[in-house]
Amino acid sequence: MRYSVLLTAAGAAILAPAMAAAQWEPDRPINIIVPWSAGGSTDQITRVTAPLLEEELGASIVVVNQPGASGAIGTQAALDAPRDGYTWTANAIANNANYTVTGQIEDTSIDDYHIYLSIANVPVVGVPADSEFADFGALLDAFGDRGEDITVATAGVTSSGGTAIATLGGHVGFDYRMVTYDGGNPAVIAAASGEAMVTTQLASEQAEMIRAGRIRALAALTDQPLIIEGMEPIPPITEWIPDLPVAPDYFGIFIPVGVPDEVVETMDRIWAERIASADEIAEYAANRGAIFAPSFGEEARARAMPIVIEEACGRVGRGEAVNDPSVIGIDCATKTEVGR
Q1: CA nearest to 219, candidates 269, 174, 260, 165
Q2: How far apart are the C-alpha atoms of 308 and 304, rounded to whole Å?
Q3: How does DSSP assign 186-213, residue by residue?
Q4: Residue 5: what pLDDT?
Q5: I want to staple 113 with a disulfide (CB 3.0 to 4.6 A). Which of 157, 230, 254, 276 is the partner?
Q6: Are 178 and 35 part of one and the same domain?
Q7: Is 73 helix (H, G, I), strand (E, B) or coil?
């Protein structure tokens, strides 16, 4: 099966059925903290989803960009806010789950959130349109020969792009020089302008630059061609590195645990009845090379755990972990969840 939009009855069937419950009626605006700059993957999908939630809730939703420390600053702000249901956050769930492993937030894990996933994203290795690298094989050779002379633009060490290049470098055994920005969009712009030689940010962040002919996509971190509507398929990275572990990175909106029950019950209903079949999100996914994959609750958590475990244990292997993943209930010897 190729990576593309997943609109199947089976996918919808895994969502938990909506249950009769108290309806939450917000009496003031809800803030969603996006802990990255405007224009990046988290910001994009949050701004597609927010109007749908406004319609259902009958209340305004304000998307607040609060970048810094690879998403940790804005995430901490959401965790520190009153648990009254009016402050949420958005991100890749693997980031929120691993901030304690990276030492950026003290004592937090995936279980600090009610999880509402909408899409899964995959990183793409992109270069400026006039790059010397004709394909990923040529770039791979250059990494081996020139190492830190090759600059890679990312949104930070713990961002999806930062994790992607670290995974590649660690798996193959090459050096590089990472240049970090306050979000995926600035990192992609840096690569398109030639400020950096490569970017490994997400397909959703690079799609418009690829369409405009400003970035050339060399490979997607998938095991099948990546399909973006209106473009040639992007070759899978496994054409060059067959044994590279690849997993989709799930994104969504997260509500800190401790809010009133009616907030969660209402959001569960909205996610099952509206977001699970939202054409707006499905079209965004098709246009941006993302996977349409709404889920919530225990199903969302189960979907998220493979990438959470992969990233946590990958940081240990690369020497990036400040705290052992056992503190968030992950055993890297078996790559399983063992509980806290």
Answers
A1: 165
A2: 6
A3: HHHHHHHTTSSSEE--BHHHHHHHHHTT
A4: 38
A5: 254
A6: no
A7: helix
- Per-residue CA distances from 337 to 103, 167, 186, 328, 331 (Å): 19, 21, 35, 9, 6
User: How many C-beta neighbours within 10 Å does residue 11 have?
Assistant: 15
Of 112, 42, 107, the C-alpha closest to 322 is 107
d(CA 183, CA 125): 16
Label residue 152 by pLDDT band (50, 70, 90): very high
- Give the β-pairing of 198-199 and 151-154: parallel
> Rounded to whole angstroms, how far apart are CA atoms 281 and 287?
10
**Which of these three, 187, 215, 239, is where a domain ends?**
239
Query: Is residue 2 assigned to a domain?
Result: no
What does residue 105 show for φ and ψ, rounded to 5 degrees?
A: -135, 135
Q: Write the pLDDT tens digit of every residue in 295-331.
A: 999 999 999 999 999 999 989 988 899 999 999 999 9
Query: In whole angstroms, what is the distance from residue 270 CA to residue 116 CA?
Result: 10
Q: Which long-range contacts (C-beta less than 8 Å, at least 24 apart) are formed by 7-12?
A: 7/282, 7/292, 11/292, 11/293, 12/276, 12/277
Indicate if 178 and 283 belong to the same structural domain.
Answer: no
Residue in this structure with the two tokens 């029950």, named with its chain if needed: 261
Which residue from 300, 275, 127 is spatially nearest to 201, judged by alpha carbons? 127
* Percent of the chain scoring above 70 in pLDDT: 94
Which residues are CB-neighbours of 125 under 8 A, at least 6 positions away? 136, 139, 164, 168, 198, 199, 200, 217, 218, 219, 220, 221, 237
For residue 3, being part of any structural domain is answered with no
Domain boundary among 204, 239, 274: 239
Both tokens of 250, joined, read: 């799930």
d(CA 307, CA 120): 11
Structural domain range at position 228: 124-239
